[in-house]
Amino acid sequence: MIPTQQALVEITARLQMAGIEEPRREARLLLMHAQGCTQAGLIARDSVDPASYAPLLARRETHEPLAYITGHKEFWGLDFLVSPATLIPRPDTETLIEAVLESGQRPATLLDLGTGTGCLLLSALHEFPRAFGVGIDLNPKAAALAAQNAARLGLADRAAFLAGSWADALNARFDLILSNPPYIESAAIPGLMPDVATFEPALALDGGTEGLTAYRAIFRALPTLLAPHGLCVLELGAGQYPAVAALAAKAGFTATAKADLSGIDRALLVSFRK
Ligand code: GLN
Question: Regarding beta strands 72-75 and 78-81, do their DSSP bridges make them parallel or antiparallel, or are they unpaired?
Fold first, then answer.
């Protein structure tokens, strides 16, 4: 056993040496996970067994994301299970939920294309207590994990998850359609930080040569998928607003953007041209 403070200092130093961006914060989270305790629990603990965290620390030193090591990530104030089958929910993506709430729409039926952990659909269902939603993912393991998240969040009776390609299996219109599609240009993926490039699923990141393949598929499906007065909110990669807005216009929709906290146009709000 070694003093808890000493363990934190040592973990921080090793994370820093490995080039992890927030080593102090992550050291605390890693040790909390290793000890199975809260922050208050950690403060109350005088000493810890280094064997409890050594294997976790070794994984993080290879840049495996902390969320894959702990198996959890917070999004929109809710706790989500994550796995290597899914992208890790990002704070930027919360911009889509903000955009939906600001739109003043009160959707009854929701669809999330490429649902991953289910974070977008389940956060929206959390905000609209009478709504029902469907989440689709090409990876059955992601669809299964999203269903598990629905159950843990008490939303299982209002959410259904399917494995499939975009909306091919659906024959219905939805009031609200959400998607954080893969939008990174294929050639740019090796240059992303190793945490993302090496560990997160290419299926959730790779948007093809121009990064637009998924948007094209979505705009092909949207005319028969979106309710006449419905709203579709898509996540955008940095700098993609003009290109994706042009695709929306070509498909007969109007589109506006909402910026994230860094000022990047992050959410595209799409509706039928009036
Ligand atoms: N925002 C993610 C990233 O920058 C990409 C998510 C996506 O392709 N939808 O790593």
Answer: antiparallel
